[in-house]
Each structure stands twice: as structure tokens, then as C-alpha cells.
Amino acid sequence: MEYKFLNKINYPSDLKKFKVKDLNLIAKELRHKTIQSVSRTGGHLGAGLGVVELTIALHYVFDTPLDKLIWDVGHQSYPHKILTGRKDKIETIRQGGGLYGFVKRSESQYDTFGTAHSSTSISAGLGIKIAHDLQKKESNVVCVIGDGALSAGMAYEAMNNAGSMNKQLIIILNDNKMSIDKPVGAMSRYLSKLLSSKSYITIRSLIKKISNKFPETFSKMMHRTEEFSKGFITGGTLFEELGFFYLGPIDGHNFNDLIPILQNIKSSKLNKPIFLHTITKKGKGYLPAEKSDDKFHGVNKFDVISGSPLSKSNSKSYSQIFGETLASEASKDDRIVAVTAAMASGTGLNFFAKEFPKRFFDVGIAEQHAVTMCAGLATEGYKPFAAIYSTFLQRAYDQIVHDVAIQKLPVRFAIDRAGQVGADGPTHAGSFDIAYLTCLPNFIVMAAGDEKELIKMIKTSLLIEDRPSSFRFPRGNCKGLDISEELKPLEIGRGRIIKEGNNIALLNFGARLSICEDTAYNLSKKGFEITLVDARFAKPLDTNLLDKILDNHEFVFTIEEGSIGGFGSIVLDYIHNKRKKSTLCKTHNIIFPDIFVDHDTPENQYKKIGMDAQSIERKILSISLKKEIHLHEIYNQ
Fold first, then answer.
1. Coil, helix or strand for 126?
2. Using an 8 Å Cβ cutoff, are 103 and 111 in contact?
3. Which of 33-37, 173-177, 556-560 has the lowest mean pLDDT?
4. How many CB atoms lie within 10 A of CB 13?
5. Beta strands, E only, 390-463
6. What average pLDDT does this structure show over 229-255?
7. Which of 163, 267, 297, 424 has the largest CB neighbor count within 10 A?
8. Is residue 637's pLDDT more than 50?
9. CB 83 within 8 A of CB 156
10. What is this structure's pTM?
């Protein structure tokens, strides 16, 4: 496709040179550019397609980057990136060294606030607006938040606070779940334009000013009349009750609606926040996305014509194994319930939901609520599984501590996306759950080395009824092991020796197991006798097995996909503070470095941080042989 308009647009200032009648053609080209780019890189497509017109309208009307634009979550920011100086780099999105798949402040001055977890935009926007007022800056702050993100408590906390302040913070609801029907047609558009116009705002202000000149009873009557009139026309809303000037709903794909309303909002001088409700269609303009159940929320590389992925894996994902196994166990135990926070398919619970819809609960983007709801279920004898990504579980840490751990309630935490997650980068990596759970009393903490171990840990957690437990598993596909055999639960706190040698031992905790197996194999070819242990449990630690290793090896290396303070730290604590005998063995921890790891392929990420097989091998050799070993030396031996 030849980009007649888009080729002339590098920044929003270029966009403003066109007439409103040209914007539909610009939207067509921008949508095409977005589809073509994501088809080659993979990424979040549906959300971006749904806000093409809204993105153009916002940059057309407002003076970004002086006016601040915040995209909640950032899934929908690809069209924004194309219009703000990154058009030629858009096909590097989510690639190593390329554009980030979400919003990142260091990437562009047009990226006002870094977003990747949802429901943060209103809080950040209010903070920015307060700062601007203190500095006497005449600028607008616009927060674009989706209907899904609006389900989170943090969004309502922010709106409650914003509604109590005399500040014109602008919030735009990108509602892509409602259809545009007759009530949202011409009459609604007319009322929205009227209510956002200067004349109506002036009338409201005038009524308030006049009412102040009359006795209190008359003043109250006029105020009630004005509020009743508006309520009669538009209907009362929650947002009005929270202190917002509510507009909408309007068609978020119609420039004839968007432009004049946004212009009215920009020029208004209200001493209260404004809430504009727009209706959009996720995946708009691309038929395969519109027909897809998830509207192409997140996709791998795909064929543009058919919408089909270019590559498929024959092996199941860890999430799928989890969901299928839990559903199987639920068929035998009607006390099993599953809870997730807007990640039913992502965590594999769509399998469970299909089989047991009455025992499945998707609470929306509300991780805090999900955890405490599970705690409540546990008090009544149910066996709740909270299936939440590691990075999102961080949002419910107080609830984990206060509502679950202190009360020793048997909530089972199924922690998906453990470790590095590739293209989604540091905001979605599961780096800290080992550390933030093992430090809590009353917790059992497990990590699966492969799909068989995951199945065993699910079954093990079902037997733990006197305290909380967790098991973590990575993003991606399994090794393809034969799981047709009946797998039994594990003995609590018992690890396993996979390969027994002497002198050097590798203590693995979690999904680096296959990499440790490769490392052990490579070292064995060089004459080393390596012991490989799958710890399985970080808490309780298998101290009997650890004692055996410490007494019979000169070097021990712990390996885990997590930060300092996790499994390796627990091992060192045992050696130095709890072990009754002296330890001559030298122990080294291989963990995530003290940095946030940039997006790339998982393989490249682990190579960069020294946790691929070659890097682990090099570290072991350099320490055990007491000299610096370079890779070419290792592979030329």
C-alpha cells in the first residue's frame, strides 16, 4: 500500500497540517501500517486497531508533548508510536534493541509515563496535573484507560481523589465491549457536543453564580433544577457522583464526533475533572481480528491475508498443562475452585472454565481482590487456586501477607510467567516471587523443572490444607515429555538427584533444569563428574539432601530464575546460620543480576545475564579451575 498521507507524517505537528476531512484516509493508512508491522514482529494488535481514530484525534487536537498523553497499559500504543517519530522503527517493536511493546519514558518525549501494568494512568495523570498547577503550566493531561483496566480498584481510588480536587484532568474511557446502537447515535452525539461546548459550560457556571445571590433555599432549588435537567437528558452516572463532568458515550471511530468534542474539552476551563466515554471496536478494520474471540489481543507473526500464525508448536504450553491438570483433578474433588484476574486463557484456566463454569471465577484486573477472595473460600473448606502471573501477583502482596500467610490459609498460588518472558520485557518478567514468598512464614514454595514436575506440584498442593503454597512455571512450551503415566504428589520438602557425581554439584530450582542438564553433559565430556539436583522446594529446604551435597563436594552452584533473596540466599542462610557442622564446600549463586532485563528473545535474555548453558559452564570452570575461562577455550578443549 502506498502511504499518500502517512509518508508525510513523522510527528503530530505534521498531522495538524491536514484537514479534518483527510483524517479518515490517514486512519486507513495508519491501520494498514500497524497490521503490516505486527504481522512481521508479533505483538498486541487488536487494542491498537481499536484506537486508531482516537489516537489521531488526540494528537490532532492536543499539543503533545506539551499536553501530556498517558496510555493505560500500553497495549494500544503502536499507532501512537508511529505518529510520534518512530514510524521507521515500528518493525523493531518487541525485538532485541528495538522499540518496547508498551510505553517507555526513555524511548520518546511523547511517552509521558511508563505503562505496562494496567490501571495506573489516572493516578499518574493526577500527579502530573498537580505538578503542572504548582508550576503554573497551562497544559492538559489526558489519560486513556480501557474498560478492562477500569475494573481495578486503583483506578477508582484515583478517580475518587481526582473528583475531590478542582483540577481539569481529562480521562477518556476506551470502551471496546459495548456495541454502538441507536441510543449512542445522533441524539447522543448531539448532547455530548452540547454538553462539552462553551455555551453549556457557561450556562452551568452562570446558574451557580446567580444562585449565590439569592437566599439559600432558592439557591438549592436552582442547583437541583440544573442537576435534574442534566440528569434527565443524559442519565445519572457513577462518574458524575465521583465529581467528574461526564460526556458520552460517543463513537470513538467517528472524527465528526471526536474532533469537536475534544476541541471543546481542550478550550474549556472547568475546575473539575472531565470523563469522556468513547465506544470503540477492538480489532477494528481487520476482519480476522474482529472475528477472533480475543480480537488478536496478543499474536505471534502471522499471514496478513488469512490471519493465521506463521508457525505453530506441536508441544503444549506450561499454562495448558496447568489448566488441563487442574480440570482433571477438579473432576475428582468438588472443593477445587479456580480464580484468575483477567487472565483465563493466559493461565490456561479456559480449560477449567469450560468444564466447571460454576467453580471458575475471573474477577477482572483485581489481583488484590482475587487473593483475598481465595482466602475467604479457604476459610469455608474449599481449595482455591489463584492463577496469576508472577509480575501481576506483586500487586497483591499485602493481601498475600495479611489475609493469607498470617492466617495460614491454604490458598494455592499457581504462578505463571516465572523467569524472563522475552518480548514483553522487564514489566512482565517473573523475577521476584521466589524472594517475596520465601521470606513469609507459613509458606511452602515450589518451582517446576519440567511439565511432569508441574503436574506433581499441582497434586501436591491439593494435599496441603494447613498453610498456603505456591508453585511457579515458565512461559512457553514444555519439553514434550511423556505424561501418560500416573504422576504422584511429592513429599513436602524433598528434592531429587538427577545425576550423581563428585566435586561439583548443580542445585537447580525451577525451569533452568534442562539448561543445567546441558551444562552437566558438556562438563562430563571434559572429564568432570557433575552432580545435578532438582531442589523442587525452596521452602521447606531439603536440608538432608543439602547436607549430603555439602559433605561430598568441593563446589556447589545454585541456579534459579529469580533475584537475590531467593533459593540461593536460603541455601547460604542454612550453611552460615543454621547448619550444625562446619562447611568446607564453596557455594556460589547463579541468579538474575541486579538490573531490569530489556526485552529480547528469552534465549538472548538468558545469554546476556549469563544463565545459558555456555555461560553457566564458563562460570563453573573459571571458579573451579581458579582462572578466567573464555568460551573459545572451553570448546577447543
1. helix
2. yes
3. 173-177
4. 11
5. 412-418, 444-447
6. 77
7. 424
8. no
9. no
10. 0.88
pLDDT at 40 over 60: yes
Looking only at the bridges linking them, the beta strands covering 141-146 and 68-71 are: parallel
The CA R_g of the chain, rounded to the nearest whole Å, is 28
461-518, pLDDT tens digit by residue? 999 999 999 999 999 999 899 898 899 999 999 999 999 998 999 999 999 999 999 9
* Nearest of 303, 268, 274 to residue 143 by alpha carbon: 274
- What is the identity of the amino acid at 172? I
Active site residues: 282, 367, 395
Contact 360, 349 (CB under 8 A): yes
Q: Rounded CA gap, 170 and 126, in Å?
A: 9
Locate 397 and state its grid cell: 502482596
- pLDDT single digits (tens) 586-609: 999 999 999 999 999 999 999 999
Q: For residues 370 and 362, what is the distance between their CA atoms, to the nearest angstrom?
A: 8
Beta strands in 333-420 (DSSP E): 336-340, 360-362, 383-389, 412-418
Alpha carbons within 13 A on the beta-carbon side of 478? 21
Residues contacting residue 220 through CB under 8 Å, at least 6 positions apart: none
* pLDDT class of 182 with cuts at 50, 70, 90: very low
Question: What's the grid cell of residue 354?
Answer: 469450560
Q: Report the distance separating Cα 204 and Cα 230, nearest Å.
A: 10
Q: What is the DSSP string of 37-80?
A: HHHHH-B--HHHHHTHHHHHHHHHHS-TTTSEEEESSSTT-HHH
